[in-house]
Amino acid sequence: MTDVIQAPTKPSAARRMLRTIAHWPPAFWGLIAVLLLAAFTQPHFLSVPFLMILLRQAAPLGIVALGQTFTIANRSLDLSVGAVIMLVNILVSDRIFLGFPAVIPISVALLAGVAVGLINGLLITVLRASAVVVTLGTASVVTGIGYLISGGAPGNAMSDTIKYIGRGRIELFPVSGLFWIASAIIAWIILRKLVFGRFIMAAGDNPSAAHYSGIPVTRTLLVSHIMSGVFAALGGLILSGLIGVGSLGLGADYVLSSIAAVILGGAVFGGGAGGAVGTVLGTMLLIMILNLLTVFGIDEAGKLVVQGLVIAVAAIIYQKSAAR
């Protein structure tokens, strides 16, 4: 009797669809749930004017989170983004730039982000130090530099152009939202269409295998941190324009929030996963949740608890679904 060898059967269309849906980021389903909740409890949340307010509020965090996506997808982390935001705010509001074209303080702010990202990347790649330790140390140094520059008293000489970037509107649409959309498109192209993005995903998934495959793992990680610094500086620039004055406390809460947005977007630490679209959705979900909690009268402590629970549940669900 001869054995009959059966050809492997292809999964049905329904099963393929279920697998695809299982890999959608938690933020997608979270947004649907939050929008339904808002529709029944706070219908004004879905009005165009209020959505534009939320967009303006979310833009700085969204841009910073896009930068954080590069590092997390590459098995790293950037805890210095809050300090970069504070430094940018102090720089662009300093009286030293009075009378200069707005392009000067803007360029200085972006170069500061490049410098911080470059220092982080070099310390992590050359010394093979922990990203957590390095970026925490860098954050402390950058914060100290900010205090030295401001003398403990931030200035109030911000350019009208920078304020327009943070507060301006084109009809109802906020200018900051345009910067967020442009940043998201750039990040998506880099991560999904360029070779460098493939390097990031490969190095994040398995650095050793990527190295033996000829991928410049060290250089990829270095550039990822530079990208994070640039995006943090741009986010700080827009946030500074929105606030309109210098503040030593600006950006402190963006460290946890940017990481939260990336995780809600489907990224997994050390998993070589993550993307611009997921991070955008994660940012939108986070902003919606925080605003709904404010309307419901939840205090800051309660917001932190809810935010932590949302992140934990999202990470667990996504890892379980991705493992199937």
TrEMBL record:
It holds the Pfam family BPD_transp_2. It is found in: Cell membrane. The chain crosses the membrane at residues 21-40, 46-67, 104-124, 131-150, 170-191, 229-248, 254-273, 304-323. Part of the ABC transporter complex LsrABCD involved in autoinducer 2 (AI-2) import. Probably responsible for the translocation of the substrate across the membrane. It is a multi-pass membrane protein. The complex is composed of two ATP-binding proteins (LsrA), two transmembrane proteins (LsrC and LsrD) and a solute-binding protein (LsrB). Keywords: Cell inner membrane, Cell membrane, Membrane, Transmembrane, Transmembrane helix, Transport. This is Autoinducer 2 import system permease protein LsrD. The lineage of its organism: Bacteria, Pseudomonadati, Pseudomonadota, Alphaproteobacteria, Rhodobacterales.
